[in-house]
Amino acid sequence: MLEIGTQTHPLPHQNALYILLHRNQVLIESDDQFLIPFTHFQPNSNMNAVYCGKWHEQDIFVCRFDAVPKGFSEIGLRELLFLQDQPHYILLSRAHQLSTWDRDHQFCGRCGTAMQEKHAKEHTKICPSCNLRHYPRISPCVIVSIRKADQILLARGPLAPKDRYSNIAGFVEAGETLEQAVAREVKEEVGLEITNIRYVDSQPWSFPHQLMVGFFADYKSGDIVPAPGEIEEAHWYSIDALPNIPNNATISGQLINAHVTHIKAQRS
């Protein structure tokens, strides 16, 4: 398991393992191996390594390359995440989020001064001019599985594969509770009123820095009206005849499967 704790962050060293990124791709060796020993690649002056934590007592760093080093191939982060078990999924998600924060916060958002990194017990960048601190950004999102008798609601957005259906999801707005965000997103995206909203689980989602907070809810009223530009189609599906859904590496797949199990247990 990944230990992120409050230990002092070390500087990069030869006994650590590294996660290497190029643009939005992960660099891998054979057999989709993404934890790379220091001796397997050549560091360059533009490579800024960010400490991620300890993995089985070994320090882990993530860094970006301007070009793909010799001997490596590229794989999309989403594709690679779907191949992982839960501990490796968390490690990859954290690494990508920290690297994105490092890349996107080179200068102060208040005065434009180049930021300075603080190597201590936290990930933070401090502006030497106005003292503004920047921490890794985390964007809360809600995702909900909705039940109507022995059916659940599944939808497909414009960017999703034509045959894959998932849950309603969206970002939390300023000043909202998570439950309010769930109700609003469902109303906006498919025109339904829901009730009995209850928390189930959460999962980091590195596209680029979301925290997905998962819920169950029950149908209350209304007819499905897909929001133009947001939802291509949405339908009620019997839990005994579900379409293609995301796999269980994602919180969407986990929510759907957990909800189906819960409904079947209630009716047996």
From TrEMBL:
Entry-linked InterPro entries:
NAD-cap_RNA_hydrolase_NudC (IPR050241), NudC-like_C (IPR049734), Nudix_hydrolase (IPR020476), NUDIX_hydrolase-like_dom_sf (IPR015797), NUDIX_hydrolase_CS (IPR020084), NUDIX_hydrolase_dom (IPR000086), Znr_NADH_PPase (IPR015376)
Q: Keywords of this protein's UniProt record, alphabetized?
A: Hydrolase, Magnesium, Metal-binding, NAD
GO aspect biological process, one term:
NAD+ catabolic process
Q: Which residues form the Nudix hydrolase domain?
A: 136-259
The prosthetic group or cofactor this protein requires is: Mg(2+); Zn(2+)
EC number of this enzyme = 3.6.1.22
UniProt keyword Nucleotide-binding present: no
Cellular compartments per GO CC: cytosol
Q: Which PROSITE patterns match?
A: NUDIX, NUDIX_BOX
Q: Which domain of life is it from?
A: Bacteria
**Reaction catalysed?**
a 5'-end NAD(+)-phospho-ribonucleoside in mRNA + H2O = a 5'-end phospho-adenosine-phospho-ribonucleoside in mRNA + beta-nicotinamide D-ribonucleotide + 2 H(+)
Q: Does the keyword Calcium apply?
A: no
What is the enzyme's main class? hydrolase
Name the Gene Ontology molecular function terms of this record.
metal ion binding; NADH pyrophosphatase activity
Q: What family does the entry list?
A: Belongs to the Nudix hydrolase family. NudC subfamily.
Xref: PANTHER family:
NAD-CAPPED RNA HYDROLASE NUDT12, NUDIX HYDROLASE, NUDC SUBFAMILY
Name recorded for this polypeptide: NAD(+) diphosphatase
Source organism per entry reads Marinomonas arctica
Q: Which gene encodes it?
A: nudC
